[in-house]
Design brief:
Number of helices: 3
Strand content: 35-45%
Shape: globular
Order of helices and strands: HHEEHEEEE
Largest sheet: 6 strands, mixed
Structural class: alpha+beta
Oligomer: single chain
Distance between the termini: 30 Å
Number of strands: 6
């Protein structure tokens, strides 16, 4: 059973890593199951509501963001809210397949069953090149990568 609020340090960390694993599937049909049917999202400059809009958004996102690999870390939590710091790398299909990394923060709010009802995301993309990748082909588990202190 998925962790439910009010969150403890352990259950908040577990929730973050469950979300990380789900997003790394890059399967919109699976990812939307972590959100309520009426979930509200702000993803950068996109404002979304409900499974249909979220699924469409994720389908478009992962058509562009190829070779996507994500890492999330707990930033803070209280009651039914979790804040997350994240990094993901991808090849941009709309920019000659250049490697990029997104640095960002998310704020999540959960219903009483532990399903996310609100997700607010802010992120910035930086071109990194193949040589700048942290989560390269030889990395089986993104959680084993040491994130440099200037990036945390």
């Amino acid at each position: 059973m998925a962790p439910r609020p009010p969150f403890t340090l352990e259950s908040a960390k577990q929730k973050v890593k469950l979300a990380q694993a789900l997003w790394n599937t890059r399967d919109p049909s699976r990812v939307i199951n972590g959100y309520t049917a009426t979930s509200i999202w702000r993803n950068r400059d996109h404002f979304l509501r409900g499974h249909t809009e979220i699924k469409s958004f994720l389908t478009t996102k992962w058509a562009r963001e190829r070779s996507y690999r994500l890492r999330k870390e707990l930033f803070s939590f209280h009651d039914n809210k979790i804040a997350v710091q994240f990094w993901y790398e991808y090849q941009d299909a709309q920019d000659k397949m250049r490697w990029k990394r997104c640095y960002g923060l998310e704020h999540w709010t959960f219903d009483t069953e532990g399903v996310m009802e609100k997700r607010m995301m802010s992120g910035n993309d930086v071109e990194i090149g193949e040589e700048g990748r942290w989560f390269g082909e030889r990395v089986d588990d993104v959680d084993t990568v040491t994130i440099p202190s200037g990036h945390f």
